[in-house]
Every structure is written in structure tokens, then in C-alpha cells.
Amino acid sequence: MADALKNAIAQSLECPVCLNTFTDPKILSCSHTYCKTCLDNLLEYHGNDQMLRCPVCRAETKVPNQDVSKLPANLALKSLIEDVKSQYQFCTNCESEDKPQAVVYCQDCGTYLCITCHKTHSQWKHFISHEVLAMSKILTGKVSVRRYHKCRKHPKEDEECFCSNCRKFACFRCVVMEHTKEGHGVIEAAVYEGNHMESIEDIKSKTDKKRSSFQKYVDFIDEQKERVSNVQKQCTDDINKLYEESVRHLTERKELLIDEVKGRTEEAEKELDVMKTSAQEHITHLTTIADLITTRTKVPLDMDALAAHDTLCQDLQEALKREDPDYEQPRQSSKKGKSVRFTRNVGMDELGLGKIVNTVEKNIVLPTKDSMNSMVSTPGGRMAVGCAGGGVEIFSADGQLQQTVLKHVDIRGVGFLSDDRCVILDSSSTITLYTLQYTKLNIIFKTLSDDEGGFPDLTVDSDDQIYVSYRKAQKIQVFLPAGGKAIREIPCDGYEPEQITSYNDYLIITSVDTIRLIDKQGVIKYKLTQFGDSPFAAVYQGNTILIATVKHHVGLVSIDEYTNELKHVQNLVLDYKIEKPEREWCYLQQYRSGEIALCTSDRLYIFDRK
Q: Which Gene3D superfamilies has this protein been placed in (predicted)?
């Protein structure tokens, strides 16, 4: 009876999470008690939130200032632990009333042994392989005792079975009386213990693998950050070298340039830092919860410990479901930073040092001089340039001319339907549909002539409706792919629509020096005027709008990103030098792979903004 009482007391002194004797026990609002260190680990795993969830009952406790030490201590339990540690453990094998003090504990026998019994025990042939713990190590907490439970209903019976349905240990008599109904899965306690340890090893292996995966991801991000930092350093070195060759009064200009390099590269670095922090937090989460589960030396036996174990295992399984890192995100963020370059001035303004620009991937001379009338992205992710002299020239994202089609057609506008059919607006303002292989389809559209409508432009929206704008008539006609008359007209009161682009439920209209965002009834929602410059707009992949402003008389172009309310977001290309075009007519588009394409009447410029 005394041994049963001692075992019961020892069990009550064990933390349900770490399964060791409590150290600095703290009470949660639900009255459950845990070691302070275990609560610190749990709080860290849940993101250092002020609310701590109990592993046993899942009730939440508010942790003041995220400081577990401020939770109330279980003073009674702490005192009991000190009392138990201060008492001697006597030999449970001796039958005399005056039992000697125990020096070891046999894990396999579940017995405390004095020095005499220990000598005898160690000489028995069948007991040589038993695990024996020194009392000095037990008392200092270096090792833990594996307790053998007695059934509470039948104190003389060991709990040799485990019911997987009830999640509890039971003696054989309890199994017969309470766990024989359908649905109860009863196995030997030893079998459960073995299965449990196998499960722990499996979780540990998966955790190590997942942790290694994210560590490689973090290392990769560091590599990308270093490359971006090298670009910044190289630009700064070039600036400083030229600065030393210039006069001292350029100090202010030098600092502005360095700040601009830093500003442009910091965006990429911040994105990489966010990705790195997210990955490191996941590693910390995996490590913390895995350590709580996998570093145990004992199997949870009572219901609280089992509940805590199940909760922790469930949390870890959820964490393990997270997908492996996507290396494309840091690669693309790094590429934005690596595209920054410093270019020095040459000529009269050489004392201005230079400026920061973005890398241009290609500068391609169009096959036909002064011929470009339109440009649009193809369904295959390439760029189609419509030429006034005839034909549609298709370029890849790296600037290679891959195909020329419809050479006999004088192009004014190009678009594509969702089924990849090509829509062509020709020099007579006639709309024609072509198959994917550019075979002409016998579909007739009733459009306005040049005398009626003036110079036209064309775009196609996501619903496959075809929009044709007319400068002279100051209106937009809307057609269905089936052909025939326009199904409706959109007025352009007070302005001439020069270029037209579909954007979600809106249309972007370019007119002289103004960009207008209108709905499909013609109501102007937002407008932006660039006095003295010629603006050209395009839809950006980030659900925003790109606007290129071209200074034709000096051959300079800048490209900026705007919100759908035409509010400025950021500059992407600043005063990039282009060949002065024959006509003041440009088109702006974006490749599906991220590059920005600007086409003048003579050249195609591809800016790498992936």
C-alpha cells in the first residue's frame, strides 16, 4: 500500500509535457500546472502571443507581458517536491521492518535496492541486463525513474493493457469489465510503448528533414541577399571613384545617388528579409515543438499527459503540412535588386556624376523602319508587334524575332481572344478574325470607315468583347466575336481616344497628354495629365497600371507604376536614353514572364523587371 501511495505521489509530481518532476511549477487559469520552462517553450511556439493554450484542456491563459514568470507559482506542489526530495528512499526488497536506505533503482523490476540487495541482484543471471539507476543521479534529476502503475480500482493489479479508443491504460480486470465492447482496441502496454517510440522516431525524422529543407532555403536567401549587396557595393564604388575625380562641391549629389541605389536595392532586400524571417520562424516552430515531443525519456501514462502529448503531436503534424520553400520568390526579388546600375554622364553634364537606371535586357531594331502601329502580348507569353507596312512580328522575352505572320495585311491594331484566335484591325478599319494558325475566318464586322471615325485603335477584354476606339468620332464601339454590328457604343465626350487598353472592368484611354480610367459606360473614374510629355499606359501584372512618359525631342523615357486610382507607386525606369523615333507613337506592354516592353516606331526596348 505504501509503495502504491509513493507511486501515486511521484506521478502527481510529473509535468504532463516533459514527463519529469516539476521544476518551478506554474499554474494556468484552468488550474493545470506545468514547468516554467515548458510554458516558455509553448509560448515561443505559438508566436510569443500573450494567450497561452493549455495542452491538456486547451483553455487559454493570458500571460502578462509575455512573461511566464509572472504566472502564479504552485507553492503547495513546490513544497511537496522539496519534501519528497529531502526524504530517504528505503529498500523495497528487504522484508525486515528496519529497512536500509536504497542506493539504486532497477527500472525493469520497479524496485529500490539497498547495497546488499543490489549486489545479489547484479549476480542473478536473468537480471544482468536490467537498467539500474543510481539514487544520487535520480535525486539530482540527471535521470528519471520509469514508474510502474497500479490500477486505481484494483490496487494489486498492474496496468498491463492500453485501450486506444479510451486513450488510457488499464489492468486486465478493467479490460474485461469495461473495454470489451465494439470499438475498443486493446493492446499490451508494452506494445503501445513500442509503437509510441516508433511514432516519435518517425516524427523526429520528418522534422529533421523539413528543418533541413527550410535551412537550405534560408541559406539560399542569404546568397541572394549577398548578390544584391554586391550590386549595391559595386554601384557605390563606381560612384565614389568618379566623385574623387570631380570637384568637392558635388558631395551632396554623390550622397543622393548612393541613397537612390540603397533605396532601389532595399526593396529587394526587405522582400528577402521577410521571406527569411518567415522561414526562420517556421524552423523555430518546428524545433521547439519537436524538442518537446522527441526529447522525452518516458511514455505519457495518465490522461493529462496523453492529452498534452496528443495536442503537441497535432500541432507538429500541422506544421509539417506546410509546403516546401518556393525558391522562385527570392530569386525574383533578388533579380529586381540586381537590375540596378549606375551610369556616368558623358559630355556637358559630366559634373553631375550620373544616374541610377535599370538594366535593359535588349534594344532591338524593328525589321521594317517606322512601321509599328500596335503591340500586344500573345497567349503564349510572347510580344506581337503590328506593322503598318504589313505583318505581325512576334518577339520572345529575350528579344528574338521568332515569327512574322500576316505579311500581306496592313496592321493598325492587334488583339487575342481567350481561345487564341487573333483579332486584326487593318488600314481600312476592318476587323478580321484569324485562327491559331492565322487562317482567315469568314466573320464580318460592321465598323466605321476612316471618314466616319478617324484613326482607330483596338483592345480585347477578358470576356472576349472587342473594343474599337475612333479619334474623329470620339467614341468606342463594342463588338462580339460573332461579328455583325456593334452591340453598344461608349462616348468619349470632350477628348479623342488615341490608344485603348482593357483593364479589369475598366478601359485605359490615352489622349494627347492625359491618361483616363473609364468604366464601360464611359464614366471617367480617374485621370492623370503629364504636361509636356507623351504618356502611354499598360496593364501591370501586379494589378496596377504602368505609364511610360516619353520626351520625344530628347529621346528619354521613364516608366512608373500606378494604382488603379492612378496614384503613383514607384519609379521603374528613369530617363532612359532611346533613339529619337520618326513618329511620336509608342506602345507599352508587359511580358507574362515579367519583362516590360516599350516599342517606338523603329525599335523594341525590353526592360528586365521580373
A: Classic Zinc Finger, TolB, C-terminal domain, Zinc/RING finger domain, C3HC4 (zinc finger)
| Angle, vertex CA 606, rays to CA 601 and CA 610, nearest 5 | 150
Residue 348 confidence (pLDDT): 45
Give the separation between CA 495 and CA 498, rounded to whole angstroms: 9
Q: What is the dihedral of CA 553, 554, 556, 557, to 10 degrees?
A: -10
pLDDT band at 357 (very low <50, low <70, confident <90, very high): low
Cα distance from N-terminal residue to C-terminal residue, the chain: 76
| Beta-bridge partner residues of 568 | 562
Any idea of the CA torsion for 177, 180, 184, 188, to the nearest 10 degrees?
80
Cell numbers for 388, please give them.
503598318
How far apart CA 94 and CA 78 sit, in angstroms, is 31
Distance between CA atoms of residues 503 and 462, nearest Å: 9
- d(CA 81, CA 497) in angstroms, rounded, equals 86
Maximal C-alpha separation, the chain:
123
For every residue of 305-365, which 3-state class applies, written as one string? HHHHHHHHHHHHHHHHCCCCCCCHHHHHHHHHHHCEEEEECCCCCHHHCEEEEECEEEEEE
Give start and end residues of each alpha helix (H) in 183-249.
189-245
Mean pLDDT estimate for the chain: 84
List, as one string, the DSSP characters of 94-161.
--SSSPPBP-EEETTTTEEE-HHHHHHHHHSGGGTTS-EEEHHHHHTTSS-----PBPSSSTTSB--E
Cβ 497 vs Cβ 511: under 8 Å: yes
CATH class held by domain 1-87:
alpha beta
Domain ranges of the chain: 1-87, 200-351, 359-607
pTM of the model: 0.47
Tell me if 560 sits within 8 A of 570, measured CB to CB.
Answer: yes
pLDDT score at 321: 83
Virtual torsion, Cα 437, 438, 441, 447, nearest 10 deg: 150
Long-range own/partner contacts, residues 509-514 (CB < 8 A, 24 or more apart) = 509/469, 510/535, 510/536, 510/537
Measured CA angle at 169 (ends 168, 175), to 5 deg: 100
Q: Is the pLDDT of residue 524 over 50?
A: yes
Indicate the DSSP class of residue 90: B
Measured CA to CA, the distance from residue 395 to residue 386 in angstroms comes to 11
The Cα–Cα gap between 478 and 460 comes to 10
In CATH terms, the superfamily for domain 359-607 is: TolB, C-terminal domain (2.120.10.30)
CA 471, 475, 476, 478 dihedral sign is negative
Grid cell at residue 514: 492625359
> pLDDT digits over 372-409, tens only?
999 999 999 999 999 998 999 999 998 999 999 999 99
Alpha carbons 291 and 288: distance in angstroms, whole number: 5
pLDDT digits 0-9 by tens, 160-210:
888 888 888 888 888 878 888 877 888 888 788 778 888 888 888 888 898
Return the axis-axis angle of helices 75-86 and 2-12, rounded to nearest 10°.
130
**Cα–Cα distance measured from residue 74 to residue 37, given in angstroms and rounded to the nearest whole number:** 14
DSSP letter assigned to residue 439: P
The predicted-structure confidence for 527-580, as pLDDT tens digits, reads as follows: 999 867 789 999 887 688 999 999 888 888 989 889 989 998 888 887 888 988
